[in-house]
Amino acid sequence: MHAPTDRLDFAPPDSPGRVRAVILALLVHGMLLAALAWGVRWTRDTQILSADAELWSAVPQEAAPRLAEPPPEPEKPVPLPPPPPPPLPPQPVVTPPAPPPPKVDIALEQDKLRKQKELARLEELKQEKLKQKLEQDRLDKAKQEKARLEALKLEQQKQDKQKQEKLKQEKLQAEQAKQSQQAAQDKKIAAQEAKQAEAQRLKNLQRMVGLAGAAGEANATGTALKSSGPSASYGGRIRAKIKPNIVFADEIRGNPTAIVEVRTSPDGTIISRKLTQSSGVPSWDESVIRAIDKTEVLPRDTDGRVPPLLSLEFRPKD
After folding, report:
1. Of 273, 266, 277, residue with least CA distance to 294
2. Most buried one in 25, 35, 134, 306, CB count within 10 A?
3. What is residue 56's DSSP assignment?
């Protein structure tokens, strides 16, 4: 099974330079083939043969048959043909004279002239049409340019008119604004005058009420005979009622104010409450709202009444 492998193992080593020997052999054979081809071509070149011939008769003729065999006569010597004449010297080439010009037919010449005139007339007509076309194009361009200038002029006039209308409208608006401002100023002056008149009327009314036996203080500004609002101590009584219900233990900076609007029934029962101004501390606002809800009923004033609408202020450090 391993015979081919063993044979290759024990084969003699390749002789060095085999590739170079093959290349040299191919080169030598190529040179030999080139030399053989050149020799064959040289022997096959066309060879020019030179030979002389003598003519015994201009036309070959066949001999007639024999009638009898006479005794042989001595042969006569065949005369040699005369030598060929020497070649003539080259004759000069004579150029034949030019043929005379043919006679031109008068009719053909006239037809040719007529055609030339017709072509010239057609060319003139063509040039004239071209000039007319160029002139028409120039006129059309001038007309278009004139129309464009007219359109630009009309557009400019339109823009000027629009600008004038705009200026007129702006002027009218400015006048209207001035009139409105003047009307507002007049209205403001009228309001001030009405306010002053109302103040004067209230002052006169206060003076008349005071003369009629009003119960207010000397510096009071009301017009009723008796004050109908809460007393000075009523706010403290309400705070004393609500503040014990406030539960707030957070640290707070400053003393922010929370204002709550409270609506009550005639007997002091709290109907609704609304935070109208936050203190900025949500926990304090919620504590105040919870305290109001827990209070439920507000105390009565010194006159036995409870105002229907109260605005209460709460501060954590009061």
Report:
1. 273
2. 306
3. S
Mean pLDDT by 10 residues, the chain (318 residues): 53 70 90 84 55 54 57 59 61 56 67 89 92 92 92 91 90 88 88 86 67 47 53 78 85 86 88 89 89 87 84 84
pTM above 0.85, yes or no: no
What is the rounded distance in angstroms from the CA atom of residue 103 to the CA atom of residue 100?
9
For the chain, the residue count is: 318
Map tokens 């709550």 to a residue.
260
Count of other CB atoms within 10 angstroms of residue 292: 22
Sequence-separated (6 or more) residues with CB below 8 Å from residue 315: 255, 256, 257, 258, 279
For 268, phi then psi, to 5°, come to: 95, 0
d(CA 36, CA 31): 9
186's tokens:
């007049």
Residue type, position 85, single letter: P
Whether 230 and 241 have beta carbons less than 8 Å apart is answered as no
Amino acid at residue number 124 = E
**Residue 259 β-bridge partners:** 277, 313
Q: In this structure, are strands 258-264 and 270-277 parallel, antiparallel, or unpaired?
A: antiparallel
Give 262's strand partners. 273, 310
Angle at 148 between CA 147 and CA 153, to 5 degrees: 95
Using DSSP's 3-state secondary structure scheme, residue 222 falls into: coil
Euclidean distance between CA atoms 229 and 301, whole angstroms: 10
Q: Residue 160 — φ and ψ, nearest 5°?
A: -65, -40
Judge whether 245 and 294 are in contact, CB under 8 Å: yes
8 A C-beta contact, residue 310 and residue 268: no
